[in-house]
Amino acid sequence: MINVRASGMPLVERAAAPVRRIGARGFVMVFALEAALIAVLFGVVLYALTPQRVPLVRSGDYTAVREAVLARLNGSVADPLVELSPGVSARESNVRGFALNGQTYYYYLEGRRGFDPLSRGAVDVGRIEVVARDEASPQPIVIYRMLGQ
């Protein structure tokens, strides 16, 4: 007599699904793609944060405006002193600006007390257009004009 035990259900071994793994070459490609994406995103953010309205930096008028400001600062152009209050005087071009090619330009030296409309608080930053920032001098010079003039 043969004793055989059999269950009602046959045992079936299931094969595990094949796991695909990325190789070293694939890892480097994915890493390079992510690095390029992050670099592009970083560039877009930096581009969005930089001021876009600096028109004279790219034009030939930049040197003319810069030279006009420097001539007023070093005294080679007649620029009388204006007394603002007792004991406080400033160059007239610093207070009222100067005209060049039909535009009125204002300037101030960074790090020094200025008497231009922006430094005095007579005009809001949103109402000016910075046309040049000259860092070649010992003190940076910011040249601007009023919007809507």
Explain what you see.
This protein is an alpha+beta fold and 149 residues long. It folds into two domains: 20-50; 55-146, no CATH class. The radius of gyration is 35 Å and the shape is rod-shaped. Strands 3-4-6-5 form a four-stranded antiparallel beta sheet. The mean pLDDT is 82. The chain contains four helices and six strands.
Spans with pLDDT under 50 lasting ≥5 residues? none
- Secondary-structure element order, N to C: HHEEHEEHEE
Look at the helices and sheets and give the structural class.
Answer: alpha+beta
Rounded mean pLDDT score: 82
Q: Gyration radius, to the nearest Å? A: 35 Å
Helix content: 25-40%
> What is the tally of beta strands?
6
- Biggest β-sheet: strands ordered side by side in the sheet: 3-4-6-5
Distance between the termini: 115 Å
Total discrete domains: 2
Shape, principal axes of CA atoms:
rod-shaped
| Residue fraction in strands | 15-25%
Question: What is the number of helices?
Answer: 4
Largest sheet: 4 strands, antiparallel
Brief overview:
This protein is α+β, with helices and mostly antiparallel strands.
Describe the SSE topology.
Elements: H1 24-49, H2 61-74, E1 81-85, E2 88-91, H3 92-96, E3 98-100, E4 103-109, H4 117-120, E5 128-134, E6 141-146
Antiparallel strand pairs: 1-2, 3-4, 4-6, 5-6
